[in-house]
Amino acid sequence: MVSPAVPVKVWILETGTWTDPGTKPGISGFTLLELLVVIVLIAILGSYVVLSVDIDQEPRELEATAQQIRQYLNSASQEAILSGYPVGLLVEDNRLVFLLVGDDKWEEQLENEALPQVSVTSRWHMTMQKDTESSDIDVNDLGGKIVPQALIYAEGYADPFSIILTGGADDRISYSIATDGSRLFSVTMLEK
């Protein structure tokens, strides 16, 4: 016995023909469960991306700040050479202050664009470590309330010192901006 013929629907589309007898073209979709799984996977991957960006960003910001401080120290060296007077350095309260001699005492440079006060964010720490005592000038002789911790001299050299920037989770990242007394300042990452 011969079975009756099943009618076949033929859809003529712009791109060709569709001859599947049981479905219409363009009708498809996702189940609610499939959509929820995709959304959860995207959320998990997104959280990893956000965490990795936050972790990687802090060392870059800290290094950029260290490089900026190095540039300001180079400007202070040029200022000392051009003016013929030493530039004093003072690190206190997470800020680097440049000092010049004025009216027989050290004065903070508030108006000098080349030597601005450099502050770091409260989640970081800035300290100064001196390798030796000042060699040429007794900084206490000038009196006043402000006394520099290190000097950059007009002759083109400086007291050997390091400015240490520490930050990151548990203070695990540190950079040193240092000089051995020459005019060159270097930035190095310290291992912890």
Q: According to CATH, what is the topology?
A: minor pseudopilin epsh fold
- Summarize the helix and strand pattern as letters: EEHEEEEEEEEE
Q: Helical percent range?
A: 25-40%
What is the number of strand segments? 11
The CATH class designation is Alpha Beta
Describe the structure.
The chain is an alpha+beta fold. The protein has a single domain (32-190), classed as minor pseudopilin epsh fold, CATH 3.55.40.10. 27% of the residues lie in helices and 28% in strands. The protein contains one helix and eleven strands. Strands 3, 4, 5, 6 and 8 form a five-stranded antiparallel sheet that branches.
Features of this protein?
1 helix, alpha+beta, 5-stranded antiparallel beta sheet, minor pseudopilin epsh fold, 192 residues, 11 strands
